Amino acid sequence: MPTLVIVGAQWGDEAKGKIVDVLGSQADVVVRFSGGNNAGHTVILGPQTFKFHLLPAGILHPQSVGILGSGMVIDPKGLLDELDRTLALTAEIGELKISSAAHVVFPYHRLLDQMQEEARGENKIGTTSRGIGPAYEDKVSRIGIRMAEFVCPDRFARRLREVAGVKNRLLELFGQPKFDVDELHAEYSEYADRIRPYVADTDILIQDAVLSGKKVLFEGAQGTFLDLDCGTYPYVTSSHPIAGGACLGTGIGPRYLDSILGVAKAYTTRVGSGPFPTEQDNEVGVRIREQGQEFGTTTGRGRRCGWLDLVALRQSCRLNSLSGLIMTRLDVLSGIPELQVATSYRLDGQSLDHLPADVQDLARVEAVYEALEGWDGDLRSARSMHDLPASTRRYLEFVTDFCQTPLAIVSIGPDREETILTAEIWASTPR
Ligand code: GDP
Ligand code: IMO
Ligand code: MG
Question: Binning pLDDT at 50, 70 and 90, where does residue 296 land?
């Protein structure tokens, strides 16, 4: 009964989309378990580029069922646009199901996201402005509108009116015009009509799939250090991108998780504000951004770039109980003669082997580096570990030794073929 969780092991954009697409060829079910269209997962298939924000990146395999899990917040218009865009590129997609318990993102969430960011002034988080935080706030406050209510016309009309009273008062406080409930209701009822056939009690579907021995892949969004509880709070997202989130956002228990693989770039990037101990706000960072074309899939923002932070990566291995590491974008570092990796931090004269939980302390740490030999040339044609330069293999060995976590996959380019599998991926645990 093999189940496999793929999580981002850093601050997002680690190439989860590519990896889920590669492994999705063997999956019966692929489930997104958290976040919303703040995510941007790129899959490159020959001449075509797919940018998934809500659809699971495994959807390009027609044999698999793609599920949007209960832990997600879903912008209906964004979802339908994405579905249309995807179907315009290929008809070959898997069956789609949407959890009746997932929450719906409305335009007032997006507006409030922007208003709250503006109100934070200097301390803004640098959100994706997709209304993610406000939608999760409504969920926690127990006033959110779930998919089951959204696709039921009477209940939707009643709930929207109920919530509108509160939201319009809030918008007024921010000096914004009120939204017209009837207009919003009319527009969103049309989306609800299109979405209704996909909505199901997916928790049960997923449990049945797991218990009947199907291969179920849980697709994470964002990254470990953007986790609401375990990340660099408050510079985080409002959901649970860590492996534990795969249980919270799908309705399965922790003992049903067999393998958990964490995706990490060979260096580090971060979009938005917040501490980043190995950031290189200099020519090294600029070089990585240019060589790696590090610009956001969702917002187009330039990503902040820096050296690989092994202190953070090791912590990520523990937080997620990773069974293996997937190292991506090794090709991007080609041509840099000497690579630095952070192996500890210094804070107030003390050495630290982990990220301090308090963001103010994390902002003050100084990364302590070890230098490793770089490599040159084009790695993208490598198809086995032996095809990689010896110094690339040594770099990977240093990482896995330091993190005490075995290597599972190496990615040396965005295409499906530019992938080296180094371990059994779908190992199952008897239950
Ligand atoms: P995600 O959010 O984790 O799915 O990652 P994104 O899609 O936001 O960003 C990863 C980017 O790296 C995408 O443009 C991918 O096409 C690209 N990519 C994936 N793997 C590799 C790789 O090994 N090398 C290079 N150069 N690019 C890659
Ligand atoms: P994928 O799935 C990178 C960041 C935002 C911001 C913070 C909060 O593509 O890896 P939010 O809009 O979620 O309230 O923003 O989280 N962020 C991401 N950074 N990759 C992502 O997704 C992200 N999703 C959110 O930049 O700093
Ligand atoms: Mg992304």
Answer: confident
The sign of the torsion formed by the CA atoms of 61, 65, 68, 74 equals: positive
Choose, from 21, 28, 41, 240, the residue flagged as catalytic: 41
Range 54-72 average pLDDT: 97
What is the three-class DSSP state of 193?
helix
pTM: 0.97
Residues 314 and 399 in one domain: yes
Q: Name the residue range of residue 81's domain.
A: 3-95+201-421
- Whether 361 is catalytic is no
Tell me the CA–centroid distance for residue 417 and ligand 1, in Å.
Answer: 14
Same domain, 161 and 110: yes
- Would you say the CB of residue 55 lies under 6 angstroms from ligand 1? no
Residue 408 alpha carbon to ligand 1 centre in Å? 17
Q: Which structure tokens are listed for 48?
A: 């075509």
Structure tokens at 92: 């070959």
Integer Cα distance of 232 and 210 in angstroms = 33
Ligand in nearest proximity to the CA of 51: 1
Between the CA of 185 and the centroid of ligand 3 the distance, in Å, is: 31
* CA 230 – CA 245 distance, rounded (Å): 11
Residues 149, 183 share a domain: yes
